[in-house]
Design brief:
The chain is an all-alpha fold. It has a single domain (about 5-225), classed as MetI-like (MetI-like fold, Orthogonal Bundle). Helix content is about 85%, strand content about 0%. Helix 1 (about 5-45) runs antiparallel to helix 2 (about 50-65) and helix 6 (about 130-160) runs antiparallel to helix 8. It starts with a helix and ends with a helix.
Length: about 230
């Protein structure tokens, strides 16, 4: 067996386990947190008071205008200079959540705004309050529109978590760096790492397609019943 193939076989499980133990949880935690944060920001942008609107607009402008890696470095390496010390994983969670929240807030805001005003008026005309109209009428329609861009953001986040290696989080990419430092075979190890990332992304893309098909069918049933 060629030496390069044996190296790939030997390193596959350490790389995959690092992805399953650190990369996947980091992605899930930060995406869920980012969605919640993005939803709150979107609501403020659309319906909040002017001072809060100005504040969240500044936050979105700041996050979207600076590199993610710089944001992570500021949180993990910069905050200790003012007495705030965070472990690597929590620092990565905070950094990715703040970043995802800014980007997803724009997606959510656009999808909420795309629901026709007539839907709100029809909801109020049958006695719904704002919360009921949002939950029963607006959110289901907005969610159907938001699934593709949010799914793309989720897949991108899987790959972006490789930046957590710079904070010493022992995720997939850092595991590859450590093995490469011992074996002196960076080309083989990084190629295998790319294949594992591709595997994760392919699975998520497949799930995205199934979710979109299911939502389309569900919507079709609702329109037929209506």
């Amino acid at each position: 067996m060629p030496a390069w193939l044996q190296l790939m076989i030997d390193s596959f499980w350490p790389l995959l386990s690092a992805g399953l133990i650190f990369t996947v949880p980091l992605t899930l935690i930060t995406f869920v947190g980012g969605i919640i944060l993005g939803f709150i920001i979107a609501l403020i942008r659309l319906y909040g008071p002017k001072p809060l609107i100005a504040l969240v607009r500044f936050y979105v402008w700041l996050i979207r205008g600076t590199p993610l890696l710089v944001q992570l470095f500021l949180i993990f390496y910069g905050l200790p200079s003012v007495g705030i010390v965070l472990d690597a994983f929590p620092a990565a969670v905070i950094g990715f959540t703040l970043n995802v929240g800014a980007y997803t807030s724009e997606v959510i805001r656009a999808t909420l705004a795309s629901v026709p005003k007539g839907q709100w008026e029809a909801s109020y005309s049958i006695g719904m309050n704002w919360t009921q109209a949002m939950r029963r009428i607006v959110l289901p329609q907005a969610a159907r529109i938001a699934v593709p861009p949010l799914s793309n953001s989720f897949i991108s986040l899987v790959k972006d978590t490789s930046l957590a290696a710079a904070l010493t989080v022992p995720e997939l990419f850092q595991a590859a760096q450590r093995i490469a430092a011992v074996t002196y075979e960076p080309l083989i190890l990084y190629t295998e790492t790319a294949i594992i990332y591709l595997l994760f992304s392919s699975v998520l893309s497949s799930l995205q397609e199934k979710l979109e098909i299911r939502l389309a069918r569900h919507t079709g049933v609702e329109e037929t019943q209506a």
